[in-house]
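Q: What structure does this chain adopt?
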Amino acid sequence: MHGGKEGRSHAVPPLRLFDRGGAEGTMSDRTKLSSAVDVIVSCLPRLASSEWRSANLLKMVGLLRRIEKAGHPALSSAAAELATSLQALESRGIPGDNPELERIRRQILMLRRALPEADLASNPGAGNRKRIAAAPRPKPHAATGNSESVEQKMESLRRRYAEQLPSRITHIETAWQRIAGPGQDVDASAEFRRLVHQLRGISGSYGFAELGAAAAEIDDCLHPAGQPVKPTADSRKPWVERQLRKIKRLAAAAAAQACRAEDPAPHAEAAGHRSAGIESAAEKHRQLVFLVEDDVELAQQLSLQIEHFGYRIRAFSTLSGLREALHEDTPDAMIMDVMFPEGDLAGPQAVTEIRKRLKHQVPVIFISARTDLTARLEAVRAQGDAYFAKPLDLEQLLRKLEEITNRGGDPAFRVAVLSQNVEHGGARVARLRGEGIEAHLIAKAENLLVDLPRIQPDLLLLEIDEAGSEGMALAQMLRHQEEYLALPILFTAPKPSPQQEILARKLGEGILPTETNPRVLAAILHRIRTLKNKVRQEVQDEDRMCEFAGVYNHNYLLARLELAQASVTAASGSYSLFCIGIDRVEALRRKFGLRGADQVLRDISQLVLAQADSSDFLALTHFGDLVLLVEGASLEQMKARAESVRLAVDRQIFEVGEQTATVTCSVGVSMFQASGTPEGALREAARARDRARAEGGNRCHMQLTTEQKEKTDVQDREWERRLREAMGRNRFSLLYQPIAVFQGQPQAFCEVLLRLQGSNDELLAPPRFLPNATRLGLDAELDRWVIQRIFHVMRERSGRTENEVRFVVKLSNSSVCDNKLLGWIQKEKAAATIDAAGLTFEIKLDTASRHLREAIELTRGLRGLGFSLLLGDFSGSPEGFRTLEHLRADYLKLSPALIRTLASGPQATSRVSSLVQQAHDMGALVIAPWVEEARLLNTLWGLKIDYVQGFFIQRPSPDCNFSSAEGEAPFFV
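A:
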């Protein structure tokens, strides 16, 4: 794709759309569609300008509506979504906040990504045009020595620096004594600041973050950035001395550690400090970078890293050395510190002075421990290309160096010159080539449409005569061709008239005098390429994303796992992997198709992201699993995170078109090990997920290391002892929450809730102990303990006529699958001599669906004993109604997620109303849980809900003798 239109002489450059008739027609061939999408993408860098948006938003919408009519589903959907967003922005009078603009930017990139997926085979030959291509991620170039030797050199440098720390601290203390003693002087204060500033910058870069932070506190407090150096005030001396003692202690610890460590390899002389000599041909071919840094150790470290990426390095510790070297050679780029002994801003000032005498402008990256506005502005005034604060992020610095040196990037600027005066046009082409621009002459207007696809220029330079009519007509003809909508056109004329200037701005980049200096054209081309690179970088970043899921893709996941593994190997971090897979995904795809299943997966990814921390990383694998990378989580935190994700998915109702779906997920968790690999960690997490699925799904499984297993075994033994002791000594308590009659006959319930008494007699909710009981296989025993206790309560209450209460007891997965449970209940019922009509057993819909045969057998037996059945967590899915038909449950309890959707509007209310009516037709009464506010009751009444439950009705209580204040039937609303 050609670049956008920056650098015009007018304030608001117009958006190039389709100028010819039939604006409402559709676009069916590849060239038209691709060109139209490229035009939209070219607008990306200009979205931040409210003035530009005011002039062009509606034009963008018009073009998007045409793309929408192309008949390609993915492309049409993306175009429609973007057009809607732009119309909403325009209707509010334009000003948009940053989040809104960022969302629109992402939609534009999604439009671009949708283009290759469209069926564009109708014109496979079309394509003689430039398109944005995602630049490949920079890869390390061949270097002298392998990566292991570089790591050894880096470790050796780090060790040497640590060994020298006590000496550095001594120099700092000496400078401080000169300040703190009688007769303060500015020179001593400046020396003290310089030494502390050096310690601040290089310590962090070498990995001594705490030491660098302590030095930064002194640096920022005593000498705020941009302020002149002054003698230290007496009031600050005690604080500084405490900080110096802290720094001395940290430096001593680092030095002692370095002495204990083994030197991995003999120290090799750093790149850039080697003696001058004859370089090999391969060495000369590598791009030259000047590194100007007065701290020799930091310069050595940076030189090794940059040299490893295929550059030649010459390092200088003084500005005078740099000036002398520039007389001999011109580098491809410079990395320049800001502060030098000559002054706090000597680096940018030296660059400004150097630029005045250099023939070619050299890209410059500034580095500094200073982060203040003054230093950054000075770097901008020196025309710096980037500014990085110390401690340096070497990955970002190298990425920027790749960008400004343009390695493996775009070719030379390419210009097509249309001039029917062959002599004059040939002279212009020669001058452009002299400036390093690839220029081509088109001598005849009739050859224009033939030569342009061959040349594929970055810019068309169109010479026109004083009348200008033919040249303007040619430009307008090009604008009628969709493939040239985004081609920058610059006009030249001997003496441009005002009318020509207006028309030139309308059709192209503007108009210049004929005798324009070629360097002006080079500057215009540079702006065009800068714009194109920005757009390409946006697309490159998006290439890391899985667009439909809104998370990172598999390839970028592997790259991030490599970084995490390196951190673990260096013992500087710990990481855990969560593999999240949808249970019974094939059934989901059969029901809703691939698009519907993808929609559910996208919604699940947003649920996980909503719970994630800023440091978490979420990606989608090639196999359709979500993988969450978490740093620094303890074993208990990992368990809690996995359970939180599982519950969030279990409780959510997903909308797929006009239908709804409920799904569950299995979560597998593994830890990175220092001796492992990223692929191994991923396999372990997937194996843990498979284990969770094999155990019935909708659960979590930890793939633990040996150390973790030992720790977990100890914890499991403690939990087993605690739970069994609680059952044997009645350390469990029962709470009761009413399920109140809402309409119909007043026969209310109490739901039985289990709590564990803690060490301080506090009551622990089920999430605190039930997952442990399930993992240890004690959940079925807990169910039996609860049933026995309720039989005992029912026997004690038998014969009472007042406040007669019926109870609801939940059964776990294990109990439903326990073929001995029914016989045990029959025996316990006979011994307790209770009325079975007073007890209802609740089974979750998901449990019943996954173990349907066992659930049918159990419920048939329970009904034969006189008990009733409640089907819990019901979402109204067709599968749920089929399960209801098999079990013939007496009651349905709606899913809490379904209740929460009632606030979203009439569509959700209508869905629930239909569900309730269908349940009534099948003979089941409906319970609405989680009723927490009065206004929800009006909605539930209109839906003909039979029972309600929630904190608004009654909180759980240890007393089951509930009655209304008015003396009505118990729990009657």
